[in-house]
Every structure is written in C-alpha cells, then in structure tokens.
Amino acid sequence: MVGLGTWQAFDVGSAPAERAPREAVLREFAALGGTLVDSSPMYGRSETVVGDLVSGLRLRERLFLATKVWTRGRQAGIEGMEESMRRMRANPIDLMQVHNLVDVRVHLATLRAWKAEGRVRYIGVTHYTDGSHEDIARLIASEPMDFIQINYSAAERNAERRLLPLAQDRGVAVIANRPLASGDLLRTLTGRALPGWLAAIGCATWAEALLKFAVSHPAVTCAIPATSSVVHLRENMRAGEGDAFTEAERLRLVSALN
Asked: Whose CB has fewer CB within 10 Å in the chain, the N or C terminal residue?
C-alpha cells in the first residue's frame, strides 16, 4: 500500500556517500514488504540510481518498478522508453506511464503494442494537478489502461469527486502521488500535537496518519512518498499496517487539519 517515490530523493551522483543512504532505503523498503518504486526521466539521475542500486542489492524480482515517458513524438517516445528501461535495468518493466499526459494518445498506442509483445506488464498515465483530472477521466473512458497516477492527499481531495470512483468502477489501479502534498502539509503541522484519537487507533505521527488517509480510500492502490531517510521510510511504511481508516476517521482527520 505504501510505495517509494524518487523525485529529488534519488537524484544524486555516483559517489558512495551519495548512494549509501538511498541503498539503505531500498534495502529497508524491501525488507518491510514494499514493492512499488516509481521514477521518471524527468527526475534527473533517479532512474539510473534506482537501476544500479536494485541490481546491486539483487532486488529486481522483489520489486515492482515503474517509470514514465516524457517527450513528444512516437519515435522519441520509443527511444526514451528504451533508455529508461536500460537505466532501470528492467526489461520488461512492470509499469510504463505517460508522464503528465504529454502526447498521451501517441504513447498509449505504442504502449498497448508493447504490452501485447510482453515488453511492459502494465500501462498508465500520470499527472499531479487537479486541473488534469477531467482529462484523465476522459482517457479512462476511452482508452484501455491499467493504472493512473494522480495527486491525492488530505489537502488535495478533488479526485474524490469523480476520478477515484470512476477508476474503481473501471478496474483501474490508482497510485497517489503527493500524498503529503509535497511535504507542505507536514510543514504546516510542525509543532502541533497529534490528536489523542489518532494515537488510540495506532498512529504515531502525522506523516503516518496522512499516508493512511490516502491509502484508506477504497480506490487507491498505493501511495508513493519519496524519501532518502530510513527513519522516514519506516514511519511511512507503518501507514500500510493495521486497519484502514473508516470514512468517518478519514473525515475526522481532515477536520483536525483545519
């Protein structure tokens, strides 16, 4: 239920001092049962770092690796996806997504063919703004796909109106990006005590509670907070343990943020 994003957190060089914390995070992530690791060619060197570390730790068979195509034109898309798979050392790759809907129908046509050939296991689309939700809803209604990746958190709930119910109805898996609103939400909560009712149902931190909010929605398959800290990773992974929030608890959490 809790995966691992790589935006900024894995965009580092090859020096051991830079790679070691990310290696520790990936090792602990797999040890705690995590599977989905998401990247993109937009994320600097993240694809290469993930590929190198996953290979070095021999974790490929235990992880579900996802990345994206982020360019215009059919041939440029093909070349970009092949390069991403090479960087991540994943061929076939588990999930290839059209990043931010760029040239989306052109790339989905390629991806449908690749899926039929076994070059990718699953295909999907991504975006990170509320303004994209209607476009994604239209794609779900008109194009066969396996995944959508969208912004969803206790602070960004627009997807609850139409997109999440539609995905659930169509059998499309949902990855929640920005589950902590890019960290902005946590920063606003710095110094604020966790409500006692959250502690009583097993939440130890605000981050755990906010992530549990996201993954407790019945349409959400996985949330992907990014981190390069083992301490924060462990905190994040606890959100996938125990019972999901009820809808009443989810709404109570939203009220507690105000």
From this structure: C
- N-to-C CA span, the chain: 26
d(CA 5, CA 186): 17
* Contacts (Cβ under 8 Å, ≥6 apart) of 123: 95, 96, 97, 108, 111, 112, 114, 115, 145, 146, 147
- Per-residue pLDDT reduced to its tens digit, 64-100: 999 999 999 999 999 999 999 999 999 999 999 999 9
Contacts 24+ apart (CB under 8 A), 76-83: 77/103, 77/106, 77/107, 77/110, 78/110, 80/41, 81/110, 81/114, 83/41
From the centroid of its chain, how far is CA 120?
Answer: 18
Handedness of CA 153, 34, 46, 119 (dihedral sign): negative
pLDDT digits (tens, 9 = 90+) for 189-226: 988 999 999 999 999 999 999 999 999 999 999 999 99
Overall average pLDDT of the 6-35 stretch: 97
